[in-house]
Design a protein that fits this description.
The protein is mostly helical and 65 residues long. The chain is built from 2 helices and no strands.
């Protein structure tokens, strides 16, 4: 990976010397980063849905009892 990175950076510097050197990221890292926010929102939505079900169950139990 370091050989590919150095080749990438040297080619980038030859083509555009004033451009910032952004380190290359592999596809799996990019997908992991983009999916992490969606996964967090899904987990939080599931947690609050379960919390709502528990609270409504306790409320119905309180009304019946």
């Amino acid at each position: 990976m370091s050989a590919a990175r150095s080749a990438y950076l040297s080619t980038l510097h030859e083509m555009a010397p004033s451009s910032p050197e952004i380190p290359p990221m592999d596809f799996s890292q990019t997908m992991r980063d983009s999916a992490s926010r969606k996964r967090l929102l899904s987990v939080l939505s599931g947690f609050f849905a379960l919390l709502g079900l528990i609270l409504s169950g306790v409320g119905i139990y309180g009304q019946v009892a």
